[in-house]
Amino acid sequence: MRNLTLMTLGLLTLAACNTLPDPVAEPVFVDVPPMRTCTPINALTRVTIPAKTETYYAITEIENPPYEPIQNKQTMTRVIEEARTVFVNSEGTEVTDVCDVEINPNGMTSDGSF
């Protein structure tokens, strides 16, 4: 009987040491309006950077004995970097996150400006 009493007291002591978990607070939702992280196109200036080209000469020579050799000299131009259009802000720095822009193949934006 004594063992039963000690065992019961031990179980009650163990049960008394357990704590209940703290109640979880309900999350509070704040309605934040969406923030625009891009720059509107009407605040920017469109700048066209011209293509970079390289001009070189090709000379061919054909032997033509007993006369002088026949020479042909041609000027050739090669495009190294294509022309491109960028948008810059009022400080002159290039802006890549532009809002509301759809550039058509003819170079016009969706609002009809260049």
TrEMBL record:
Report the protein name in the record: Lipoprotein
Organism field:
Algimonas arctica
